[in-house]
Structures are given as structure tokens and as C-alpha cells.
Amino acid sequence: METKNLNLEIEQLRADINRFKDRLDKQQIVNKKMMRNAMSGHISFISRRYLIVMLICVLMIPYSIWYFRYMLGLSLAFTVYSIIIFIIAFVYTYLNGKDFIHHKLMGLNLLNMGLRVARAKKWDAEWLKIGIPMVTVWLLWLAYDLFQIGNREMGISFAIGGIIGGIIGGVVGFRTHMKIQKSYQSILDQIEELKQQD
């Protein structure tokens, strides 16, 4: 009789453990879905940023030709340099962002997703080493060209506006850069957490 009761209790404990395991598995599935949704939001934010930058680069090429060359009469070399900057920015942004097309990145396994996000994060940080010197040269060249065409007042105005705009643009750009870097890191942290759950 005691053996029968003991067997019943053991069976009851096994059933309780199995139900608990089922609940735990369901909770982990829900947790993974929630984490993937959070990653999806960060990926969408980064992807939108890349699309906006690429659109601005494309629009600035004809604008540079029209405004710098024909409206202001600046040198052809400066206009070409401006166009080259926008082409480089477009290509760099495209190459770094091509994996952030939502369905492409979310369809990868966690290891590949982590590698691509880590690479994109590094490239985004490296862009500052390229972009800041190019823009500095561009601003100095713009002021020089304006003085060369004999428009001292416009040159001084552009120099002052360039300094103020450069400071404001630098602050906004750095804040955006840091926000993107945090999004990258958040995705990487969530991938690591999902890997540990598997």
C-alpha cells in the first residue's frame, strides 16, 4: 500500500515537473520573441538612418553642381570634390547598411547576425576618421574659393556660418552617432542573451 502511494506521489511529482518544464519552455519562447521584437526596433532605426543619409547624398550631387558651380561660381575642382564626398558617403553608408534590410538581418542565425552587427558598429565608428577630415577640408576650401572669387563679405559670412554650422552639426552628428552605437550595442547584447538561452 505504501509503495502504491509512493508511486502515485512520484508520478504526481513527474507530472508537475513536466508541466513546469512546458511553462518554462513557453516562457523562453515568449522571451525570445520579445527580444527579437526589441532588436527589430533597433534595426529599423538604423536602417532608416542609412536610407536618409543615402537619399541626402544622392540629392546633394546635382545640388552641388547647380549651387556651387552655377549660382556661386566656385571652382570646378571644389565642385568635383563636393561630389566625390557625397559619392564616398553614399557608398560607405550603402556598404555598411546593406545587411540592415530588416528581413535580411532578422532571417540570419544569431552568430551571423552578431558578426554583421559588430562589423557595422566598427565601420560606423571608423567613418568619423574619414568623414571629419573630408568635411574640414571642404569647409576650408569653400571659404578659400569664396575669397578667391572676390566676394569677401560672402566669404566671411560663409566662414562664420560654417563655424557655427560645423559646431551645431558636430554636436547633432555626434549625438546621432552615439545613439546609433548604443543601438548596435543593444542588438549585440540581446543576441548574446539569446545565445545563452539556447
Quick structural gist:
This protein has 198 residues and is mainly alpha-helical.
Characterize the structure shown.
This protein has helices spanning 2-71, 76-97, 102-106, 110-148, 152-197. By secondary structure, it is an all-alpha fold. Helix 2 packs antiparallel against helix 4 (110-148). The relative contact order is 0.11. Helices cover 92% and strands 0% of the residues. The model has no long low-confidence stretch (mean pLDDT 76). It contains five helices and no strands.
Structural class: mainly alpha
Radius of gyration: 27 Å
Helix count, per DSSP?
5
| Model regions low in confidence, pLDDT < 50 over at least 5 residues | none
Helix content: over 70%
Which series of helices and strands comes N to C? HHHHH
Relative strand content: under 5%
What are the main properties of this structure?
mainly alpha, rod-shaped
